[in-house]
From TrEMBL:
Entry annotated with the keyword Oxidoreductase: yes
Official protein name in the record: Cobalamin trafficking protein
InterPro entries: FAD-bd (IPR002938), FAD-dep_Monooxygenase_BioMet (IPR050493), FAD/NAD-bd_sf (IPR036188)
PANTHER family in the record: MONOOXYGENASE, PUTATIVE (AFU_ORTHOLOGUE AFUA_6G14510)-RELATED
Domain of life per record: Eukaryota
């Protein structure tokens, strides 16, 4: 017997996790995702995952298989969670911009007992819970690289390297389709006017395409990291730029003032955005989904369960936000404004050393 109907808006990791958890508990769940296709081949890597948590979340409890050493490919984790739901549970190509009355929400013309909003850090529906509250730029960016490992020049170690406020490193990812990828990252302080605010809606689909790197990027990377292991990091990133994909991901931070309003719940990045250096962004999204399940295990009534989740989910968002602020202190000194990238490169080429490098 169904316990009611739920709409989940957003079909990424957090949304699919919530859908699995609620389906386990007898709800009829429909997931609405604006992208026209699934995410099997999308994304980069996670250094580690809580396999027990994933397996407790998937509706049929299937085993999450590690395909080899290294990290986990996002697309494989997405496929695992998608596999726990019926084929018709996810509706692709449906953009949801309104839920109507939060006390009796509707999605795509149909009424639901409650709605879970999991449409990401630049959510179009978060406003129904937190109003005008928006993410804040942290002061630094992650430049993420991804390529087939076979295209990488030989190098001795993956690891990580730090120099003052700059940080770089990476790890291999073994994928379900047999590929091995290299997932690299380079953290760089940048003024806010040098970063692009992420696109939303249909424009985000275009953003999946490879963009040209700024002409200063590789020369700056070389100036900062040519001293490491005989320049192997520089050779690695030049290979990623040529054979793979290198993209800018400005680090935005967000902690929702509340996570429930009426019968609308926000989870995942819609409720909290944090630095990738916390290693807990996607993990906290999974914990949100798990927390919804716990709330419904303890409270049979929808309103009572959502009231309990409102406390638990807000606590989790606060904890992640504190962790992200702690990481921020490693990269951002409020007394030293970030130097624009081109200016920093010019200073390095001239042989100067900036206080922001030490």
């Amino acid at each position: 017997m169904s316990r009611g109907s739920v709409a989940v808006v957003g079909g990424s990791i957090a949304g699919l996790a919530a859908a699995n958890v609620l389906a386990q508990r007898g709800f009829e769940v429909t997931v609405f995702e604006r992208f026209p296709t699934g995410f099997e081949s999308r994304g980069g890597g996670l250094g580690g995952v809580d396999r027990q948590l994933y397996e407790s979340i998937r509706a049929d409890g299937a085993t999450l298989r590690q395909h080899g050493p290294g990290g986990w490919f996002y697309g494989d984790l997405w496929r695992y969670l998608r596999g726990g739901l019926p084929d018709d549970a996810v509706r692709h190509g449906v953009a949801v911009a309104d839920v109507g009355d939060v006390a009796a929400p509707t999605v795509d013309g149909a009424a639901y007992d409650f709605v879970v909003v999991a449409d990401g850090g630049w959510s179009s529906l978060r406003r129904f819970v937190v109003g005008d509250q928006q993410p804040v730029y942290s002061g630094y960016c992650l430049w993420r690289g991804l390529m087939d490992l076979e295209r990488a020049p030989s190098f001795r170690s993956f690891g990580g390297h730090r120099s003052g406020y700059f940080d770089t490193g990476g790890f291999p990812i073994s994928c379900a389709d047999g590929r091995t990828l290299y997932n690299g990252g380079f953290y760089l302080r940048m003024p806010e006017d040098e970063v692009a605010r992420p696109a939303s809606g249909a424009a985000r689909q275009v953003g999946e395409k490879k963009r040209a790197l700024p002409d200063w990027y590789l020369p700056l990377y070389e100036k900062l990291w040519s001293h490491v292991n005989g320049g192997e990091l520089v050779r690695l990133w030049r290979a990623m730029a040529e054979h793979g994909k290198v993209t800018q991901h400005a680090v935005w931070e967000f902690c929702a003032d509340r996570v429930v309003n009426g019968r609308v719940v926000i989870i995942g990045d819609a409720a909290h955005m944090a630095s990738p250096r916390t290693g807990a962004g996607a993990y906290t999204g999974l914990l949100d989904a798990h927390g919804l399940g716990v709330a419904f295990d303890r409270h049979g009534d929808v309103d009572a369960a959502l009231a309990a989740y409102a406390v638990d989910g807000k606590r989790r968002a606060n904890e992640l936000h504190r962790a992200s602020l702690n990481v921020k202190r490693q990269f951002v000194d409020p007394s030293r404004p970030p130097v624009p990238a081109r200016e920093l490169l010019a200073q390095l080429e001239a042989g100067g050393r900036q206080c922001s490098l030490n």
